[in-house]
From TrEMBL:
Subcellular location as annotated: Cell membrane
Pfam family, any one: LRR_8
Protein's name in the database: Leucine-rich repeat-containing N-terminal plant-type domain-containing protein
Domain spans labelled Leucine-rich repeat-containing N-terminal plant-type: 39-91
One GO term describing the cellular component: plasma membrane
Provenance organism: Escallonia rubra
Membrane topology (UniProt): Single-pass type I membrane protein
Length: 1123
């Protein structure tokens, strides 16, 4: 019995010892008094376990972050103490769970508000991060954990409103709710309470939580880490955040509405990590940034900082990561950057205004592993101090203006993996050390001016090579065929020579991108080794003298881009190629070959199909309408015939370019262009299409180019096209259009973007379309010619350019690319009549104007001399008369002129380009004279020099107003004769009596009785005196009438000339032909004073009228400022 009791005691001791060891181990804490986990707690945890399933994808991001997920709850069961379970921590004295860490536990399911886990009221730490709680909301019952100090619910797919109870957990020290569903939201009041009232809170991470609030002005001094990335913060960043005494981490990045400037003083916090990227902070970076001497991570990318980089940046001697990219910094790099000896990553890319030579500040930065200066204005040579950066892994100086050759003596870059120097002005040969870097993976020297041959690669680590668009010569290095890891090889656009057998790439099983286009290579495909490139998805072999489809593509099923254009491939498209790439091919360019057949289109994802300039024959297969993803279709310049498939009007919602020009298609244009289509270019030129233009084209709201020239369309002018807001090229030439082109539309700005309009060789009638011409705004923008050259269609990422054909100098010119500054009007070979509208002179950017072979009459408007960039001008075969305006000689860009077969007269202008034109330009105008014609002008053997500008201006004014000194003298002469005649008649016949009565105010009194003596003598003396006064009055009448008539004539003539001026204002809008207000008013006052002069003294009035007319008339005639 004693033995039995002894055995029981031993067993109890062993169990006690097991528990003691278990609870004392780090992974299984124990209670000091050996208390077991309470049963109700075990049951609660097991019930919590049953609420979820295990799914490894629920914690996939843990594996990405190298935290490694594992299903911790799988080991939970009732046979063991819950305090020993994985992820559970218990109080050593009570056995109650104080910590639950189920992060990366592959849990999937919903946390319910009545979950039994909330009975674990003594929890202090709760970590459920990196699971998938299926858009659960955070239950309000979380507020029961009053003793909670650490809460982590990040990366767990929570959604909805964060309960305010979290912001009332008084003991909270660390809170992480970051990176959940985008609907995860925290109310601004709860946000403010968190940062201000939780005095123990040290670390808060709410990144990617929808807060949409301002940052509180005052924050708890206990905060040491604040992470609020992409939370919708707005307003001004308070300065006090940089004065928090314990703050070492501040991340406010990706809050685009957060603005303000950094404080110039009092940046005294012990910050070690500062990230303000992608905010709207602006202004200069203050010198006070140098006070943050504890910084080791500074990231300010994508803000609006400007000015120079402060010299004080050199005070941040502990910084290891510095990113100031994508701002507006300017000036030179400060030399103080050489003090940052701990720096491992430096990124100053995309500031665009950083300039000057790159200083040699890198000699001391021996720890630097990544250096990026991309996208600035640095010039000068490649910095030699880079050779000292032995730890450098990534070097990017692309998209600058670096010049000169690369240094030839760099031998100490053993760790360099990525080198980007593309889009510079580097020249010379590629140094051999670039081919000897042992760790090199990415090498991009494209778009420079490098010459000479390529060397052989010494190591096989290279994966990416881009030498395109240089001037390299010689053959392709054979060592490239040994680069087993190579995925991308771009050698396009050089002067490489030699024969390239595609068999050389047989070992490159990882090759995905291969471009050899635009060289002097002769590519052959012997396929002796049965080459297969299973990974190839991108192949460009244009201008490679290829004679057949590469056989190595037979086994490839993932091809995405294939360009075999400008080769010598003959025969039909191979059937094996039709059956391949059905689910992968998006781009196929076979243009400019000799392919005679392409009957099937099985490629479901094909976006670009370019087979122009081949030998395709037969009808266009309707199966092409199955290409529902097609964006660009170009089958132009072939021999396709048959009826135009009606399905092509709306077979693809993605179609932007449909080019079928120069084929033999018949029938009508499709009548159903669907609403919402994206068609931008419709070119059906050079077919045999009939019928009318379908009105459904008004649904093509994005249409920029419409070319249906050289068909048999029988219709009136399609006025409804003026509603297309983007139309820039309209070609209707050589059809059977008829009727007037004049507009009666109420559209405010019809055809405002039109640059090219060609209506030639039709049967249009009526006057030239002045209303439309007045709205050709795109032809009036002369400033656009000074901007960088652009081509229509250039924005397309597949480099497909719009094309058209224009007639200049009587010859057709194919424009494979249409410059956006090229403008032309061709209305020739129609039946237009009337005059040439002056408004054409406002089309200041016009390059070509052809109005020939019409019935235009009148004179050539002098305002056409303002077309100062005009290159081709044709008015031949009309009925134009008058002289050739001298202003046309001001057009210094004119290279082609044809004014033949009109009724022009007078001297041919000389000067500038007019001195270069031959007699053919003026033939058929019998009244023209002067060089280059043999007929001399009558007034002189040689042409008179043009008058000075001032005299010319006055002559133009006289011509426009019709009021010259000859007319004035004629008016005064006629007025004088008429005044004498009328005055004499009135004087001698004494009529009208009321008028004579005004003069003879005193009637002779009748003498009732004879008076003698002194009285008689006095009476006779008075009679004589009255007679003398009567003669004076009559003379006064005579002068007054004469002056009145003259002034009346002048006033009438003034009204007449003003009426003439109003009618001529459109012809001379820039000249000052309106009468001066004061001069005209003076004439009117003069006339008025004449009519009232009966009440003034005759001598004073005659002098006054003479002075008024002397001063006013010359002013009114000679001075004509524009009003």
């Amino acid at each position: 019995m004693r033995l039995s009791m002894l055995l029981d005691l031993c067993l109890l001791f062993i169990l006690h010892l097991q528990h003691q060891l278990a609870y004392s181990s780090p992974s299984h804490p124990s209670t000091a008094n050996n208390h077991l986990c309470p049963s109700e707690q075990s049951q609660a945890l097991l019930q919590f376990k049953l609420d979820f399933t295990i799914d490894s994808f629920a914690s996939a991001d843990c594996d990405y972050d190298e935290q490694y997920s594992q299903p911790k709850t799988m080991s939970w069961n009732m046979s063991t103490d819950c305090c020993t379970w994985d992820g559970v921590t218990c109080d050593r004295s009570t056995g109650y769970a104080t910590g639950l860490d189920l992060s990366c536990s592959q849990l999937q399911g919903i946390i319910h508000s009545n979950s039994i886990v909330f009975q674990l009221s003594r929890l202090q730490r709760l970590n459920l991060a990196h699971n998938d709680f299926s858009l659960s909301g955070v239950p309000r019952q979380i507020g029961r954990f009053a003793g909670l100090t650490h809460l982590n619910l990040s990366y767990s797919n929570f959604s909805g409103l964060i309960p305010p109870e979290i912001s009332r957990l008084p003991n909270l020290v660390s809170l992480d709710l970051s990176s959940n569903d985008q609907s995860f939201k925290l109310e601004p009041n709860s946000f403010k309470t968190l940062l201000q009232n939780l005095t123990r809170l040290s670390e808060v991470s709410l990144s990617f939580v929808n807060i949409n609030s301002v940052l509180p002005m005052s924050l708890s001094s206990s905060l040491s880490s604040i992470s609020l990335q992409n939370t919708g913060l707005h307003g001004i960043l308070p300065d006090k955040v940089f004065q928090l005494p314990n703050l070492h981490t501040l991340d406010l990045s990706f809050n685009k509405d957060l603005t303000g400037i950094l404080p110039k003083t009092n940046m005294s916090s012990p910050l070690r990590w500062l990230d303000l990227s992608a905010t709207s902070l602006l202004g200069e970076l203050p010198d006070s940034i140098g006070l943050l001497k504890s910084l080791n991570h500074l990231q300010l990318t994508g803000c609006n900082f400007s000015g120079s980089i402060p010299y004080s940046m050199g005070n941040l001697t502990l910084v290891t990561f510095l990113d100031l990219s994508d701002n507006r910094f300017s000036g030179n790099l400060p030399s103080s950057l050489s003090n940052l000896k701990q720096l491992t990553q430096l990124d100053l890319s995309f500031n665009h205004n950083l300039e000057g030579q790159i200083p040699d500040v890198f000699a001391n930065l021996r720890q630097l592993t990544s250096l990026s200066l991309r996208g600035n204005n640095f010039f000068g040579p490649f910095p030699s101090s880079v050779a000292n950066l032995t730890q450098l892994e990534v070097l990017d100086m692309s998209s600058n203006s670096l010049t000169g050759p690369l240094p030839s003596n760099i031998l100490q870059l053993p760790n360099l993996t990525d080198l980007y120097l593309y889009n510079n002005l580097l020249n010379g040969t590629i140094p051999s050390w670039l081919f000897s870097l042992p760790s090199l993976v990415q090498l991009d020297l494209s778009r420079n001016q490098l010459t000479g041959p390529m060397h052989e690669f010494q190591y096989k680590s290279v994966e990416f090579i881009d030498f395109s668009n240089n001037e390299l010569t010689g053959p392709i290095p054979l060592s490239i065929a040994e680069l087993e890891n190579l995925t991308s090889l771009y050698l396009l656009g050089n002067n490489l020579t030699g024969i390239v057998d595609l068999d050389m790439f047989s070992n490159l099983i990882n090759l995905q991108y291969l471009g050899l286009s635009n060289n002097n290579l002769s590519v052959i495909a012997t396929n002796k080794s049965n080459v297969q490139l299973p990974s190839l998805i991108w192949l460009r072999l244009s201008f490679c003298k290829l004679k057949e489809f590469p056989p190595m593509l037979r086994a490839n099923e993932n091809l995405d881009v294939l360009d075999l254009s400008y080769n010598e491939i003959q025969g039909e498209f191979p059937k094996w190629a039709e059956s391949r790439w059905g689910d992968s091919l998006t781009y196929l360019n076979l243009s400019h070959n000799f392919i005679s057949g392409l009957k099937h289109f099985p490629w479901k994802k094909l976006g670009i199909l370019d087979v122009q300039s081949n030998l395709l024959q037969g009808p266009l297969p309707s199966s092409i309408c199955n290409l529902s993803s097609l964006e660009i279709l170009d089958l132009s310049n072939n021999s396709l015939g048959g009826v135009f498939p009606q399905c092509m009007g709306n077979f693809s919602n993605q179609l932007t370019v449909l080019n079928l020009q120069n084929n033999g298609l018949v029938g009508t244009i499709p009548t159903a262009f669907a609403k919402g289509n994206r068609l931008r270019n419709l070119n059906l030129r050079g077919n045999r299409l009939q019928g009318t233009l379908p009105r459904s084209m008004v649904n093509c709201r994005n249409l920029e180019v419409l070319d249906i020239g050289e068909n048999h369309i029988n219709d009136t002018f399609p006025h409804w096209l003026e509603t297309l807001p983007e139309l820039q090229v309209l070609v209707l030439r050589s059809n059977r259009f008829r009727g007037s082109v004049s507009s009666t539309s109420k559209i405010q700005f019809p055809f405002s973007k039109l640059r090219i309009i060609d209506l030639a060789d039709n049967e249009f009638t009526g006057n030239l379309p002045t209303t439309y011409i007045r709205n050709f705004k795109a032809m009036m923008n002369v400033e656009e010619a000074r901007t960088a050259l652009k081509y229509m269609g250039e924005v397309n990422y597949h480099e497909y350019y719009d094309d058209t054909t224009v007639v200049m100098k009587g010859l057709e010119h194919k424009l494979p690319r249409i410059l956006t500054i090229f403008t032309t009007i061709d209305l020739s070979n129609n039946k237009f009549k009337g005059g040439i509208p002056d408004i054409i002179g406002s089309l200041r950017s016009l390059k070509v104007l052809n109005l020939s072979h019409n019935s235009l009459v009148g004179q050539i408007p002098p305002l056409l001399g303002k077309l100062l960039v005009l290159e081709s001008f044709d008015l031949s075969s009309n009925q134009l008369g008058g002289e050739i305006p001298e202003q046309l000689a001001d057009i210094t860009t004119l290279s082609a002129l044809n004014l033949s077969r009109n009724h022009l007269v007078g001297r041919i202008p000389r000067g500038n380009q007019f001195n270069t034109f031959g007699a053919d330009a003026y033939s058929g105008n019998s009244e023209l004279c002067g060089p280059p014609l043999s007929r001399n002008c009558e007034d002189s053997e040689t042409p008179k020099p043009p008058p000075p500008p001032e005299v010319q201006k006055i002559n133009d004014l006289d011509f426009a107003s019709g009021f010259t000194w000859k007319v004035v003298l004629l008016g005064y002469g006629c007025g004088t004769v008429l005044g004498l005649a009328v005055g004499s008649v009135m004087f001698f016949i004494g009529k009208p009596k009321w008028f004579i009565g005004i003069v003879e105010r005193e009637q002779l009194q009748k003498v009732r009785r004879p008076i003698t003596g002194v009285f008689e003598r006095e009476r006779q003396r008075k009679v004589r005196r009255r007679e003398e006064r009567s003669w004076k009055k009559k003379l006064e009448i005579f002068l007054r009438v004469m002056i009145f008539v003259v002034n009346f004539y002048l006033c009438a003539f003034e009204i007449q000339t003003m009426y003439i001026n109003l009618n001529k204002q459109a012809a001379f809008p820039s000249a000052g032909f309106m009468w001066h207000k004061e001069a005209a008013l003076s004439l009117r006052v003069s006339s008025l004073e004449v009519s009232l002069s009966w009440f003034y003294d005759i001598e004073d009035h005659v002098i006054h009228v003479w002075l008024q007319n002397k001063d006013s008339v010359p002013v009114a005639i000679c001075v004509g400022p524009e009003e």
